[in-house]
């Protein structure tokens, strides 16, 4: 079954999605959890998300983070980086994800209207958060963290990561925000990051998460080391 988080308010969409994950995991501690980034999507990983279970794990909670690009990203050679199989494979898997016994959370802010409607039609529950004319101050989306990465301020980024961890933010949530920002830098460009550098930044964050999942490194410590390496 699909739980769909989307809308033009990127900050609120991401915050609410990770809050939902935290509540679900607290409510059902034995629920196995996995987060898939766009680059990790394939027919095999999506089939696992829809069908996996077993003797010791009856159900999975899978967060699919930003599976479809809002705008195509262009490589240094001028080729469309997003013209790969991930988008079409994801859309082909929607029916299987919708009928799965697993909880499939799709996090896709700023998605094109046609794409959003297609996913919403398959969702058990949809959560839409659009930017309103009145914004209230609340803890959630860490703008300081995103800005520190954008401006390439390693000391500030390290400090913001530690502040967030002390405040109780999950390392996976911080990684998700950093990886979203890396992809945003790839799409929009930045004074501090050249196109090749922002691409390598995104790949480095993917590798960091994969190493943590394999048990080769603690994600919190890896994020701190990453901050000091930019």
What topology does this entry show?
Elements: E1 2-7, H1 10-27, E2 32-37, H2 43-51, E3 60-65, H3 85-92, H4 94-99, E4 103-109, H5 113-122, E5 125-128, H6 143-150, H7 154-166, H8 171-188, H9 195-213, H10 219-229
Parallel strand pairs: 1-4, 1-5, 2-3, 3-4
Quick recap of the structure?
The protein is an alpha/beta fold and 230 residues long. It has 10 helices and 5 strands, in the order βαβαβααβαβααααα. A 5-stranded parallel sheet has the order 2-3-4-1-5, sandwiched between helices.
Helix content: 40-55%
CATH topology of the largest domain: Rossmann fold
Radius of gyration, CA atoms, in whole angstroms: 17 Å
CATH class identity of the largest domain: Alpha Beta
> How many individual β-strands?
5
Proportion of residues in extended strands = 5-15%
> How far is it from the N-terminal to the C-terminal residue, by CA?
39 Å
Low-confidence stretches: 72-83, 133-139
Largest sheet: 5 strands, parallel
- Order of strands across the widest beta sheet? 2-3-4-1-5
Name the CATH architecture of the largest domain: 3-Layer(aba) Sandwich
By DSSP (H or I, 4+ residues per run), the number of helices equals 10
Give the full name of the CATH homologous superfamily of the largest domain: P-loop containing nucleotide triphosphate hydrolases
Task: Work out the count of structural domains.
Answer: 2
